[in-house]
TrEMBL record:
Protein name listed in UniProt: Benzoate/H(+) symporter BenE family transporter
Pfam families named in the record: BenE (PF03594)
PANTHER family attached to this UniProt entry: INNER MEMBRANE PROTEIN YDCO (PTHR30199:SF0), MFS FAMILY TRANSPORTER, PREDICTED SUBSTRATE BENZOATE (PTHR30199)
Transmembrane segments: 30-48, 87-104, 110-132, 139-156, 202-228, 248-270, 282-307, 313-335, 347-375
Alphabetical list of InterPro entries matching this protein: Benzoate_Transporter
Keywords, comma-separated and alphabetical: Membrane, Transmembrane, Transmembrane helix
Signal peptide: none
Length: 384
């Protein structure tokens, strides 16, 4: 269940993100295959080595970031093959930063020191526009989108874990019955690896690599560590960060986005639902790792199905998958009244999609939020 939910609930976001930064169909399939194999192997190695349910996942917030940043870079003339090479360079640098964080306790403390409302507001700004596509798809593609939304809403009441996979299945069934998409699934459906030479562009590194590193650390790694600790485990944090960071560097030329501690699916393997004895739960994470590798072999088929679909439909289904993350992020961002104004400014700036000096909105959103927090902290107290 951990592998099936983790894969089916967000692989559409990964494909949409890779396509947004200029990947071809084959390159997107290669990226999905690479990260499935990598995170499956990492979960097996870490779980067996430490006898803990250490679940590894791709960075879903990072994939959502690719969608938003990729759209902005296309509009500014940085899309296509060149833009994809620049994005691959950013994947590698983000992986390097994660690995360096594993070596440095100081960097880990710095990331943890970013106020949770600000990092949550940045994440909400990244995924908010994608979630809006669900409503757009329902209006502009009602035959395909409305059945998927209905399945998602109904299963959300009775089997929430399966609501997004079932919605995606409903969308695929609609595509199969739609005459306009027939004939688009021709070609090889066997997985193939493609490589590109990374290009390191300063603007892309600032607008993509740094935000990708920050959202992966704050929204995935720190959250995943917290989940494991909540079930009584003390994971080997530095080893996992160094391992996943190094693996992400190696995967980047094949189109792989960074991998990290799983957050949501980590609870499936680490909870009593997997086994009553905490010492036996590592088996669940190990089994999930093996299944991730098998699911990766279907990456070409999954990608071909998504490419055959209207982009708005896939972004709409991806928006359904990200709705819980958006709700949680907004709650974290706005609950603390002391940080509410700065968090709101972070959210608005990030969601705006602006690009200034070749640098995307997530970086500016984080900068605006931290600047407002600094100003409010330096504000003199009113005299009685």
């Amino acid at each position: 269940m951990t592998a099936l939910v983790g894969f089916s609930s967000s692989f559409a976001v990964v494909i949409a993100g890779l396509r947004a930064v200029g990947a071809t169909e084959r390159q997107a399939a290669s990226g999905l295959l690479t990260i499935c194999v990598l995170m499956g192997a990492a979960a097996i190695v870490f779980s067996l080595r430490h006898r803990m349910p250490i679940s590894i996942a791709w960075s879903t917030p990072g994939a959502a970031l690719l969608v938003s940043v990729g759209a902005g870079r296309t509009h500014s003339g940085h899309g296509g093959a060149s833009g994809y090479r620049e994005a691959v360079g950013a994947f590698a640098v983000a992986g390097l930063l994660i690995a360096v964080t594993g070596y440095s306790r100081t960097l880990t403390r710095w990331i943890a020191a970013i106020p949770a409302p600000i990092s949550a507001a940045m994440l909400a700004g990244v995924i908010g526009p994608i979630c809006l596509e669900s409503a757009q798809a329902a209006v502009h593609l009602p035959r395909l989108a409305l059945p998927a939304v209905a399945v998602w809403a109904i299963l959300g009441r009775f089997a929430k874990r399966w609501s997004v996979p079932a919605a995606l299945a409903a969308a695929f069934i609609g595509l199969a019955l739609d005459p306009s998409t027939r004939g688009h699934l021709d070609g090889g459906l066997l997985p193939t690896l493609t490589t590109v030479t990374p290009r390191f562009d300063l603007g892309t590194l600032i607008s993509l690599a740094i935000p990708l590193y920050l959202v992966t650390m704050a929204s995935q790694n720190l959250a995943g560590i917290a989940v494991m600790r909540s079930y009584g485990y003390e994971p080997p944090i530095r080893e996992v960060l160094m391992g996943t960071g190094t693996g992400s560097i190696l995967a980047a030329p094949f189109g792989g986005i960074p991998i990290n501690f799983a957050a949501i699916t980590a609870a499936l393997a680490a909870s009593p639902d997997s086994h009553r004895d905490p010492r036996r739960r590592w088996i669940a994470a190990t089994t999930a790792g093996g299944l991730y590798i098998l699911l990766g072999l279907g990456a070409a088929t999954a990608t071909a199905l998504l490419i055959a679909a209207p982009p708005l439909l896939i972004e709409g289904v991806a928006g359904l998958a990200l709705l819980p993350a958006l709700g949680g992020s907004l709650t974290t961002a706005l609950t603390d009244t002391r940080h509410r104004e700065a968090a709101t400014a972070t959210f608005v700036t990030t969601a705006s999609g602006i690009t200034v000096a070749g640098i995307g909105a997530p970086f500016w959103g984080l900068l605006v939020g931290l600047a407002l927090l600094t100003l409010s902290a330096s504000k003199p107290e009113p005299r009685p």
